[in-house]
Write a structure and sequence with these properties.
Blueprint: H1 8-18, E1 19-21, E2 29-30, E3 46-47, H2 51-68, H3 75-90, E4 97-101, H4 102-106, H5 123-130, H6 139-154, E5 158-162, E6 168-174, E7 179-181, E8 189-194, H7 195-210, H8 213-217, H9 222-244, E9 249-253, E10 259-264
Parallel strand pairs: 2-3, 4-5, 6-8, 6-9
Antiparallel strand pairs: 1-7, 9-10
Helix pairs in contact: 2-3, 2-6, 2-9, 3-6, 3-7, 5-9, 7-9
Length: 266
């Protein structure tokens, strides 16, 4: 079956109908996945691959990136503290968001431990598990990520359950921190990436990590951590979009809700 593609005219209609203003305060997160419903409590405006769990993945990759560059860091020993920092920046377990989907739940077994069921319907996390090297992490990093998500869910984290098959027709990138985009608007489903808000969240996480004793001793300040986090997140975002959105057009949405083409996912 031929993949449907969202035209520029349709993308402009999508943005006109689906874009909404984002005010200050603590924002809920969501994944880039196009299957969220507008009424889903997990469909927050801070949309990026993996939702809050994606920041955990980026932080572990940044840690390994800094160690590979010669910083005196032990990624395995510091993994837990890095994951804790990502939870804290999200506002604690009760404000932490990630997702799965209904067909992964149906395919699970009640005999499996919780960490073998949680978040398995998230394509970003699933791809990292299949190919950790491409995502800049180690297999044990991904195992610890899933174990941590199961624990966070028990503590009140929000695991949204998305339904149906993927039908995304484009990738929509928001360039303003003051806009969100509902996924379920007509005329088509789309991947949504809130790039501006994601940059802010990564900077907040970098600032928190840079204040930890281990990173102060290693001479890693917030600026260097921000660079490492941003580079890791960009690599991981690119990997996931190439695997899940290959051939789809990319549209950038400006502060005035204008839409401009930005190429095709390669």
């Amino acid at each position: 079956m031929e993949k449907r593609i969202l035209s520029l005219e349709e993308a402009r209609q999508f943005a006109a109908e689906a874009a909404y203003e984002v005010n200050g305060g603590r924002l809920r997160s969501s994944c880039v996945d196009g299957r969220y419903l507008a009424e889903d409590a997990g469909a927050g405006p801070l949309a990026r691959p993996g939702s809050d769990a994606g920041d955990m993945l980026a932080a572990m990759a940044a840690l390994r990136r800094l160690a590979a560059e010669g910083s005196p860091l032990d990624p395995g020993a510091l993994r837990g503290k890095v994951l804790e920092a990502a939870v804290a920046v999200a506002g604690g377990a009760e404000n932490f968001d990630f997702h799965t989907d209904d067909h992964h739940l149906r395919g699970g077994s009640a005999d499996l431990p919780a960490e073998d069921l949680v978040a398995r319907g998230c394509g970003h996390l699933a791809q990292a598990e299949r190919d950790p090297e491409a995502y800049g992490v180690a297999p044990e990093d991904v195992r610890e990520l899933f174990r941590t998500l199961a624990e966070l869910k028990r503590k009140g984290a929000k695991e949204s359950v998305l339904s149906g098959a993927h039908g995304e027709t484009a990738v929509m990138i928001l360039k303003s921190p003051f806009l969100g985009l509902r996924r379920s608007a007509e005329p088509g489903q789309a991947f949504v990436y809130q790039e501006a808000l994601h940059r802010q969240r990564l900077a907040d996480l970098a600032y928190r990590l840079a204040g930890m004793r281990e990173f102060v001793s290693a001479g890693i300040d917030a600026e260097r951590f921000t660079q490492a986090l941003s580079a890791a997140a960009d690599i991981q975002t690119g990997q996931t979009l190439r695997r899940l959105a290959s051939g789809l057009p990319i549209y950038r949405i400006g502060p005035d809700k204008s839409v401009d083409p930005a190429g095709t996912v390669g």
